[in-house]
TrEMBL record:
Subunit structure as annotated in this protein's UniProt entry: Heterodimer of an alpha and a beta chain.
Protein name according to UniProt: DNA-binding protein HU-beta
Region (Disordered): 91-114
Gene Ontology MF term list: DNA binding; structural constituent of chromatin
């Protein structure tokens, strides 16, 4: 799903115009960005917490040339997923895993009995 599709979903579900939905989404993203610039965390209950974490300076190698290079310290945005979202994703993965693991086992058993 891209931003345009998300705006369409918001507009449809909220019963508002796409222009208003775009304004809502843009305002949300702008406010999250502004908070992160100030090193403030943004917590959306059940979804997750946006934070800024410092990353230390480190040495690395240029993959193209193999030359050593220094990567300066910087601040990196992170998202820690909330419990509700994690549980929702676990539920969908367990169903997917069950259907995947059942099919190959059945095929192996049929070929082994021949």
């Amino acid at each position: 799903m891209n931003k345009t599709e998300l705006i369409g979903e918001i507009a449809e579900n909220a019963g508002i115009t796409k222009a208003k939905a775009k304004l809502v989404l843009d305002t949300l993203l702008k406010r999250i960005t502004e908070s992160l610039k100030k090193h403030e965390s943004v917590q959306i209950m059940g979804f997750g917490t946006f934070k800024i974490k410092p990353r230390k300076a480190r040495n690395a190698r240029n993959p193209k040339t193999g030359q050593p290079m220094k990567i300066p310290a910087c601040d990196v945005p992170t998202l820690s997923f909330g419990k509700f979202l994690k549980n929702e994703l676990k539920g969908s993965q367990s169903v997917e895993k069950k259907t995947r693991s059942v099919a190959p086992v059945g095929k192996k058993q049929k070929t082994a009995t021949k």
